[in-house]
Amino acid sequence: MAAPLALLALLIELVAGYPDWIAKSIGHPVTWMGRLIGFLDTRLNHEGAEPESRRRAGAIALFLLLLIVGTIAFVVETAFLLLPLGLIVVGLLCSTLIAQRSLYMHVANVADALDSGDLIKARAAVAHIVGRDTGDLDEAGVARAAIESLSENFSDGVVSPVFWICLAGLTGGALYKAINTADSMIGHRNERYESFGKSAAQLDDLVNLPGARLSALLIVAASALGGGASAGGAWQAMTRDAAKHASPNAGYPEAAMAGALGLSLGGPHAYDGVETDAAWLGDGRREAKASDVQAALAVYGRADGLLIAIVFALAVFTAIL
């Protein structure tokens, strides 16, 4: 188990994040993976091919992506861990796969814009973290979108990569991030990706299964620590409404957060002008506001603290063995 590595990565990312000057100079591991996925998409996803042929091509693309990313990560990790301070270097690399700091900052920007009454700025801020259309969202729509994104990305961007780093180090975290990035780029149900991206979408559902449920439980536990959130409401909404979500995973943290804050999240929204009649999660208020986004950030902060505490305990346990 690589819990010490995961703990180091969490602490580094919490303190430093991924500096903008590094992103501007060399990019980010996710963007590198994205370029590879785009290359494979261009070369293998042929328009006009039969659906089954495109499905096989998508599976081959996913295999090549994981082979390349996994091999590079394994070689780098193995080589650096042979060096005296190699653990710190690998921890730094693992920290790039976690987004606890940047997630908080992006959602806080939405809360600040709403709190100042600048709806246009709030729409622009939330557009950075959601895929839905944001141009016509009212204050409640922006607030709900921010809280939903915070909840889902706590799973996808924090808990799940940490889970896989704990299990398989840098290699496990990198493979998880490659799958998650592939799903976000080609796992769509549209004409181009319905068949080609099917393997990526199915594998992403599988690798996110443990993280989504753990993130929901962390939200429930964080709600029990005070701050006005309801642990009972979080548990009730999660167990009742999580399965209503179109995703087999996203509904767990979103429903838990809805119940914790006494809100209803989800509901109809539009992607590229197409209205989606999604289910409502939670049975509370739909008129969310800036204070609800701030309350969600407080729950998120406590849940992230609990995650760090769990990984710390695992790291200590590993060291004792």
UniProtKB/TrEMBL annotation:
The chain crosses the membrane at residues 57-76, 81-99, 158-179, 295-320. The keyword Cell membrane applies. This is Cobalamin biosynthesis protein CobD. The lineage of its organism: Bacteria, Pseudomonadati, Pseudomonadota, Alphaproteobacteria, Hyphomicrobiales. It is found in: Cell membrane. It comes from Methyloceanibacter superfactus. It is a multi-pass membrane protein. GO terms for biological process: cobalamin biosynthetic process. The gene is cobD. The keyword Cell membrane applies. Belongs to the CobD/CbiB family. Keywords: Cell membrane, Cobalamin biosynthesis, Membrane, Transmembrane, Transmembrane helix.
